[in-house]
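Subject line: Sequence and fold of a protein, written as structure tokens
Body of memo: The sequence and its backbone structure tokens, given next.
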Amino acid sequence: MNDSMESEGDRYDITSEIGADDAVSVQSFAVYIPNKTLNGREFGNQRAWVLEALELLGRINGGATAMPPVEGTWLNDLGNLISENPVVVYSYIKDPDVFETNLPTVREFLHRMGRETDQGEVAVEFDGRFYRIRRFDSE
């Protein structure tokens, strides 16, 4: 598939059909903002973390989007199934060099969120891969 995103045997050119600029390949970064601790207790300030993630990724990448709370489950270290409603904040990486330069700031946010919200892990996605942060940097 080329940048014009022709499809189904070149039946149509989506770029022209919708009046868009040429399509470009992009990398994306997403962070799952939890609403519960590692023991399943709601910690009450999820919205503040969502807003901080939106601002951080928006400034670094030129924009960010939060998906409404979704439903999910995960097993904590004690084998308890925790049901929660994370918000997924994702951002397309506009300039990989700028993103790379800001990775220490992203790391600081992720580890601080993990510590302050008492997480068993913080989950992120980057470039089609899923990462779990289970040990958090100290302050």
